[in-house]
Structures are given as structure tokens and as C-alpha cells.
Design goal:
Blueprint (H helix, E strand, L loop, with lengths): L12 E6 L3 H12 L4 E7 L2 H11 L3 E4 L8 H11 L5 E5 L4 H10 L3 E4 L4 H12 L7 H11 L6 H11 L4 H8 L3 H15 L4 H11 L5
Parallel strand pairs: 1-2, 1-3, 3-4, 4-5
Helix pairs in contact: 2-3, 3-4, 4-6, 7-8, 7-9, 7-10, 8-9, 9-10
Length: 215
């Protein structure tokens, strides 16, 4: 009797959606479930939930928002990638500041997509990252190259610039971070130098634009 070859059943790409807005999660889920070769296996509303669900489900691809309560998408990505080297995470966000991109990709994300992208771009990104490649649009790559040529702010300098963005005086920044006013001045001078600006206002504008601080 001739032996008949049965086609191997195609397993759909299992996707985990992480976003703190239910309407965004549902919209993404509806779009993905419409694809015959993809399925949504779980949804999380913050970074901590994302880690727990990832450990439980170990999906093929994770769509991760950046700005979320409890824990940010970049921190959740870092935690997941530290535990699961094969994790394939796509950052899906409204933020295109180069610091956001840099942090997320340094944390281990394999793709980066803005929420105003076309649906086809998202579905394509899922396919590409699932196949083991990176998905980084050209405009994102350009910002990343720009970011890599800029001196990095230390953790303390980032704390100071975030306080500056909130409009705090040197005295108040010192009190908030438990450091002296002269130490605050030292950090601010370093920040101005690294960001290539001449005053506090320009430093705050640059920090906001680059995603180093949020209002």
C-alpha cells in the first residue's frame, strides 16, 4: 500500500497582549484573532501581571505597552528576558522618545512599533519577530543611532532631570532626593553638558522629547 503523507497541522502564533487600557487590548485581540495563523492566549493590564502571565503561558510573541501602572513595560521586558532568553517581545507604544526605544531594546525587546502604525505593520511585525528576526522601523532605528551617540545620564542624573521637569527648585530637588543643594547643582551642570544645552528649560525640553522625563 502506498504511504500517504499527512500535512502537519499548523500551530497558530500564540500572542500575549499587555496594555493598561482595556479598549486597546480588546481592539488588538479582535485584529489578531481575525488572522487564521494567530491567536491571543492572554491579556495583562500592567507589568507585574505581564510577568506572571508570561511565566504561565510562555507565548510565542508578546505585545508590550511601555507606560503602565505597577511596573513599566521596559522593566517587565527586562524581567521576562532575564528569565526566558528566547522571549520575543514587541514594544507597542505611543512614545517615540529615543530613551524609551533605547531602554526597551536594551532590556531585550525584539521589536518596536508605535500605536499609530497600520494594522498590517503590526501583523507583519508579529510574523517577523516570531520567525526570530528583529522588527525595528527605519525611523526608530534612526533615533536609536542618534541615542547611541549621546553620553548617557547616570541613574542619579535621570532622577534629577525628572524632578527638574516637575518644576522643582534645587532646594526641593535636594530634599526630595536626600542630597545637598550643591550636589544638585553639580548634577545639573553635568546634565546640561551631556544634553548639550545651556539652561534648565532647554534641559527639560530635551529630556521630555527624548523620553528621559514625563510630565
Amino acid at each position: 500500500m502506498p504511504h500517504t503523507l499527512h500535512p502537519i497541522p499548523h500551530t497558530p502564533i500564540q500572542v500575549l497582549i499587555v496594555d493598561d487600557h482595556a479598549i486597546v487590548r480588546q481592539g488588538l485581540a479582535a485584529m489578531i484573532e481575525n488572522e487564521p495563523d494567530m491567536t491571543v492566549v492572554g491579556q495583562a493590564g500592567d507589568g507585574l501581571e505581564a510577568i506572571a502571565l508570561y511565566q504561565q503561558l510562555q507565548p510565542d510573541v508578546t505585545l508590550m505597552d511601555l507606560q503602565m501602572p505597577q511596573m513599566s513595560g521596559a522593566d517587565a521586558t527586562l524581567a521576562i528576558c532575564a528569565e526566558f532568553a528566547h522571549a520575543r517581545i514587541i514594544i507597542l507604544t505611543t512614545y517615540d522618545g529615543d530613551e524609551d526605544i533605547y531602554r526597551a531594546l536594551r532590556a531585550g525587546a525584539k521589536g518596536y512599533l508605535l500605536k499609530d502604525a497600520e494594522p498590517d505593520a503590526l501583523l507583519s511585525a508579529i510574523q517577523i519577530v516570531h520567525s526570530g528576526q528583529q522588527y525595528i522601523p527605519s525611523e526608530v532605528a534612526a533615533k536609536l543611532v542618534e541615542r547611541m551617540n549621546i553620553p548617557e545620564l547616570s541613574d542619579r542624573e535621570q532622577e534629577v532631570v525628572r524632578q527638574m521637569a516637575l518644576g522643582l527648585s534645587n532646594h526641593d530637588i535636594g530634599a526630595a532626593l536626600n542630597i545637598t543643594e550643591s550636589t544638585v547643582k553639580f548634577h545639573i551642570n553635568r546634565i546640561l553638558s551631556k544634553l548639550g544645552v545651556s539652561d534648565r528649560t532647554q534641559a527639560v525640553i530635551t529630556a521630555l522629547k527624548r523620553g528621559l522625563a514625563k510630565l
